[in-house]
Amino acid sequence: QITIDKIAAGEVIERPASVVKELVENAIDAGSGSVTVEIKEGGISYMRIADNGCGIARDDVQNAFLRHSTSKIRAAEDLEHIASLGFRGEALSSIAAVSQVEMITKTKEQLLGTRYQIAGGKEEELEDTGASDGTTFLIRQLFYNVPARRKFLKTPITEASHVGDLMTRLALSHPEISFQFINNGQSRLHTSGNGNLKDVIYHVYGREITANLIPLEYKNNGLSLSGYIGAPLISRGNRNFENYFINGRYVKSNIIYRAIEDAYKDFSMQHKFPFTVFHITIDGEHVDVNVHPTKMELRFNNQQEVYNTLYEAIDSALHGREL
Ligand code: ADP
Ligand code: MG
């Protein structure tokens, strides 16, 4: 079992940011209103992910760390989780296989919380402890028992910037959750969780971008868009500022990048990489679920239709037309 978990971990857990992604997604699934992520040395030596969600009952703690023992029943076409498709129920077991994990968790119903320690897939401790509602993970020494993996990690600065980028995307995709990110003792991001996307954009990108946003709202046959696109004068050096979320998840799609960039290019020749932050809600049947789990690439069944819809919506927003 430990060997299998270690192999599975090789596919799910690539670097500190993959651990943070899995644990924060769990925190979101647990109904948390606030999530704090703290890392040291790029997350390689230390990561703390704390939430105020539903917690895990003591009787379920050990189970949660078993492969495929997930409590959630999800259909293959459950788009909500498309980004983590392929490793459903594998995150905790995988993380525990390749690091030293300490978890403190408490449900509202319990008076005492539970402290659980597991390292390299081997359980070390399970005991009662005083705790507040929610779950805190401490992850130490990532890949301490997988030297080959550890060798492939980049510098702490690079690994920390991956975590930072991820936290930014998480904050933008969930304005209703307060996210804090602390790197080497310094707070890097702290959103209010008041549900206002524009406030998050202001917090992350500052005044200039926030002052130049065009609302993007669209709804038609199975696809809706909601968010903001940058005024044409705001243009960036790469695709990093083209943010979009599909059914609440950060994924990538070449069709969507192209629709965005083509609409801007046709509007005004000089805008190669626009700024965008918007949510796409789309019926599951329009999406190909055969997606690579870590690359987060998504395919649509009708590429042309998605392209046309997006292009049209952005073009209209740029021209100030109602759709
Ligand atoms: P999955 O998320 O696919 O179910 P995971 O290995 O990520 O698999 O998590 C296993 C289970 O542990 C979850 O289904 C959930 O019941 C529980 N769990 C994990 N993290 C949390 C959390 N932060 N709060 C509450 N429950 C959690
Ligand atoms: Mg999970």
From TrEMBL:
Function: This protein is involved in the repair of mismatches in DNA. It is required for dam-dependent methyl-directed DNA mismatch repair. May act as a 'molecular matchmaker', a protein that promotes the formation of a stable complex between two or more DNA-binding proteins in an ATP-dependent manner without itself being part of a final effector complex.
Listed name of the protein: DNA mismatch repair protein MutL
Full-protein interval shown: 9 to 331 of 706
Protein's gene: mutL
Chain ranges of the DNA mismatch repair protein S5 domain: 201-319
Similarity field: Belongs to the DNA mismatch repair MutL/HexB family.
